[in-house]
Design a protein that fits this description.
With 422 residues, the protein is mainly α. The chain folds into 4 domains: 118 residues, no CATH class; 106 residues, Helix Hairpins; 67 residues, no CATH class; 102 residues, no CATH class. The protein has a two-stranded antiparallel ribbon. Strand 1 and strand 2 form a beta hairpin. The longest helix is centred in the middle third of the chain and has 55 residues.
Length: 422
Amino acid sequence: MPVVRELNAGRAKRGPDGLAVLDHLPEGPRRALVARLRMLREASGLTNEELVERLSKEGVTLSASRLSKFLNGHEVPSRAQVTVLHRLCDAAAGGESAPEAVKETQRLLYAVLDAERSAKPLRAKEFDLAETREQLEQLRVRTAADLSAMRDELERERTLRRQAEEALGRLVTAAGDHAREIGEIAAERDAARQRIVELEEQIRQHEAMLRLHDDDARHLDEMAAATARELVRYGSPEPVEVPEHTPDPTVRVKELVALVERLRDEDRDEEADQALRRVCEETPDLVPDLWQAFRTENRRLDAERLLVLTSMRCDGITLCKLWRTRRFGFEVHDVLMRERWVDDLVPVIASHTPFDELSRFVKACRERDESDALGILARSCRPRPFSEVSALRAAGLPIRWSLYWRLRAVVHGRETEHERIL
């Protein structure tokens, strides 16, 4: 702890603004970082209290005393804190943050963490993961841009091939002395065909790379979350921060709709279903928006497949949370021209959800007083085995026994007695 001892020794040597005199700070990465932070604060013209208030509006919780510790070099801020602090100071100074300037401030912070890695390994690992995540996101964006450009080129090549084939057909029909033109157009057609084959292969590889980038991003997010938990466990006073590069759900839904549509058109139905299964298992929060997008695009079969996979792959608690979004229904008019709400999710849950998860769904709906969901489920689950329906009724599902159900109960009781005798 030599750095802390030197800082404590110089506490009395402070300037008029309450900060330690920079000349008395120890030489090294900390001094360079403190000088940078002070320069930003002074250029902004803000006091510590004003800067703390603006940081709070950006989701960074700090006290004025803790900010003072950053500016005196007694503590080191996190990567996210430094980034937001730099942006706010530049905005207060009347300008916008240049990406190169922000990267330089982050580099100074990393130099401190790297020099003190043995004393603060968790903080250094947190920075390493954030930096790797940012680089991966940049690579993913470049890959997606290349993929979009190749798809555009593929469409142009297909148009050229179609035009060449049409022109070739007209010349063959006309025949006569057009042999040379026929040969040239045939060569153009063959070149377009070859380029289409190459582009299709490159597109498949780029799509595979995007899937790998997504997997890497999920792994990095898991490592970052684990690192944040360890920081909290070992007494870090900093709040857990939201990752800087959270994918936009709207963009993600549009990409999924386009991917499924393309895979269906190419007769790769199993891959399309696999993509939907991954959404249900890994990001079920996207299911309502994705279902709505399928219906908007008139892809009702994919909307139905999504609900079936959701009911089979998600647990009962998740299904209850999804239903509570009220995103899986629509208004219809009955014969008396009255509007009524028709739900699409619960009937699918009644038909396809495993019994254990269906029981959890009933329990979750009862605890949240979702009587509408229970009523729809009671009307929809009757085709299931009588033993399951009876167990659900005992668990609180509001099913009324009619004469038909009493007869089924008698038959079921006889079958149970027969099994017991055997």
